[in-house]
Amino acid sequence: MKTVKYIGVLLFLVIIHACNSDDDSNDISIEYEQNFIEISFLEEGETTPPTINMIEQKGMFSATTLPSSEGVDLVGNSIFIDPETGVLNWNEFLPLGESEIFVTASNEFGTGTVTITINNVFTGRSSFLTGGFNNDTSNEPFLSNIDDDVLLKLRDDGVVTLLSDFDSTVVGEGNWKIEGDRIKVAYTHIDYPGENLVMIGYLSARINGDPPIVFSGLWGKGLDQDDNIEELMGAFSFKDDF
Predict the structure, then answer these.
(1) Which of 205, 206, 161, 204 is nearest to 183 (CA)?
(2) Nearest-angstrom CA–CA distance, 188 and 198
(3) Whether the Cβ atoms of residue 81 and residue 105 lie closer than 8 Å to each other
(4) What is the dihedral of CA 136, 183, 196, 163, to 10 degrees?
(5) Which segments within 134-212 are labelled E, that is strand?
(6) Beta pairing partners, 185
């Protein structure tokens, strides 16, 4: 009887193992050539088709992202996926910084997911942006008028130059750097000799926007230990028509 009992237990374990093996085989694996992709600002592109192991039948691909700073899913706006091949592509409106894309492949027998990260890097532009500043320090500084009387260039060597839009005289100069999707400018203005002025803002390419590229944020004097402006002076906005 003990022998029969042991054989029964052994058969039970073999069946369980076989079932587990079948379950594992239903998992779908997805592998892209690159899981981390670095691109330049305003650069369009696409991935190669991923390598997959669909069990039994062909499946479909879908994708999603965490909400952007504007609260929208980037998929369907600046990132797109071919539901049949899994190829990802993006347009020039992809936000700066890192965007995580969660790709899913599924059929009636299984599901698989993979995460792709696209890092959109801004390294400077050769053209000037047109815009200016205001002195509104309220909670809604962008409601006040901002004159287009200054030219600003964020050069690829990290130097920032501000010129008067009227007589082309130098208004200020300094340095800029990007931190994720945020741009920080430190400069000296001829109207504030000896003062350490800063601009903290975001550069974005806007779908159907007029103008299509905007660099906007807040400006003031000094930065605290958390990189916040110590003495707020107002808002700024610059635009570029490509």
Answers:
(1) 204
(2) 9
(3) no
(4) -80
(5) 150-154, 159-164, 170-179, 182-189, 197-205
(6) 176, 199
Pick from 44, 42, 76: nearest CA to 62: 76
Q: Tell me the CATH number for domain 129-240.
A: 2.40.128
| Cβ proximity of 146 and 133 under 8 Å | yes
Tokens representing residue 153 in the block: 């260039």
Helices in the chain by DSSP H: which ranges? 2-25
Kindly tell me the sign of the dihedral angle through the C-alpha atoms of 175, 237, 151, 134.
Answer: negative
* Strand 110-121 relative to strand 36-40, pairing: parallel
Do the Cβ atoms of 184 and 200 come closer than 8 Å? yes
Is the C-alpha dihedral spanning 26, 31, 36, 41 positive or negative? Answer: negative
Q: What is the pLDDT of residues 178-203, one digit of tens each?
A: 987 889 999 988 877 778 899 999 98
CATH fold for the domain made of 27-121: Immunoglobulin-like (2.60.40)
Which carries the bigger pLDDT value, residue 101 or residue 107? 101
* In the chain, domain spans: 27-121, 129-240
Contacts of 31 (CB under 8 A, 6+ apart): 50, 51, 52, 114
Beta strand 229-240 pairing with 129-133: antiparallel
The identity of residue 42, as a single letter, is L
Least confident of 10-24, 37-51, 117-131, 144-158: 10-24
Residues in the chain: 242
- Indicate the SS3 state at residue 3: helix
